[in-house]
Amino acid sequence: MVRPAPQPVPGVVRPTPSNARLAKKPTLETVWEWLSAIPDPEIPVITLTDLGIIRDVQWQGDTLEVTVTPTYSGCPATSIINLDIETALRGHGIEKLTLKRQLSPAWTTDWLTDAGRAKLEEYGIAPPQPAGGPQHCPHCKSTLVEKISQFGSTPCKAQWRCQSCREPFDYFKCI
Amino acid sequence: MSDPLFEYLCRLGDNTLVLGHRVSEWCGVAPVIEEDIALANTALDLIGQTQLWLGLAGEVEGKGRDADKLAYHRDVWDFRNLLLCEQPNGDFGQTMMRQFLFDSWHVMHLKGLMASSNDQIAAIAEKSVKEVTYHVERSTDTVIGLGDGTEESHTRMQNALNKLYPFVGEMFLSDDVDTAMADAGIAPDPAGHRAGYDAHLDDVLTEATLTKPEDDFAHKGGKSGTRHTEHLGHMLTQMQWLQRAYPDATW
To answer: What interface predicted TM-score (ipTM) does this complex get?
Structure first.
C-alpha cells in the first residue's frame, strides 16, 4: 500500500540579527506561542507543547524560566529538546534564560493534546488509548490489529501490526 | 563508612548502571530484531535512571563529582550494585531470567521509594516506576513463554534459574546503610519486600513450569562493596575503557 509522504515540518526558529534585541519583555502568552512552534526532534509532526512536556513558563525578574519534564529518563531527545528551546527563544531575542528540569509529577501520555493525537494518527503513529492498545490501524482504520512488541524505535513507542492491510505501525504507548 | 545517603544512592545508581551496561551488550546481536530493540530500550531506561540516581549522589556528596565521574572514574571496589546485576549475560534465556529476578524486585523497591521522605528520591522513583513496569511485564512474559516452551527452552530457563537464584537473597539483606535510610524515612527496609517477592516468584515460576531451588543460600558483598564477583572488573574494563585510556576526555 502506498502512503503519502509526511507533511514538511516547520523548522526551529533560528536566530536572525534583526530580532536579536527586544524592546520589552514578551508576555508569557507570546512565549507559549513561540514554544508551540518547536517540533519534537524525534517525532517532528508534533510540537513540544502538543507533547505536554513544557510544564511552566515564568519570568523571574528579567530572566525567563522554562520548566521541562522528560518523557523517558533515558530519552536521548531530552538534551536536543533543551537545545531547541534555547535556540528558539534566543532567536526571539530572549537573552536571560534558564531551563529547569521537573521530574514530579512524572510525564504521562494523558498530557498529549488532542491536536497532538490527531497529528500523530495522520503521520501513521497510533495515538495512546486508555485501553493500552491502538484504537485502529492508523493507515486503513481496521480494528484487527495485533501487538508485535511493547518496545519500538524510540522509548515512547510500541510495535503493532494491522491484520487487514498487513502494514506494521508504531503505537505511542501509554505511560 | 561515608555518608549513608551517598552510599545508598550509589547502590541505586550502580544497580541500574551495571545492569544497563550488561543489557546493552546485546545491542545488535539479540536472537530477533524485536528482542534486540526491547533489550536496547530496557538498557536505555536503566542508563537514564542511572543519570538521575548518580547525579543526585554526586550532589549529596558535594565534592564536585557528577554522574559521569561516578560511573567512569571509580574502580570495582567502589561499586555498590547487587551481585545479580553484574552476572554475565549467558544465553538469551539467562539474560531474561536475570532481568525477571531483578525487575520483580526493582518495581516493588521503586514503589516503596515513592513514599520517601526525600522529595528528590521520591520524584526519581515516580519517574522510573513507569518505565520499569514495562520491563517487568516483558521479562515475566518471556520467562513464562520460554519456561513453558520447548524442552530445550525449558531446560535452559531451569539452568538459568538454578545459576542465578543464589543471587536473589542479597536484595533483601539489611545492613547499617539500610537501617539509617529506614530510620530517616528515606527508604523502606529491604527485608520487608521478601514475602511479596517470593509470592510473585512462585506464581510466575509455577506458570512457567520451573522449579525454584530449595537451597536458600545467598551470595552477598555487592551492595556493600566488600566482595564483588570476578565479572564486574572485566565488565568495567569494557565500560570504562575510553576514560581509562583518555582520562577526562569530553564529547
So the answer is: 0.82
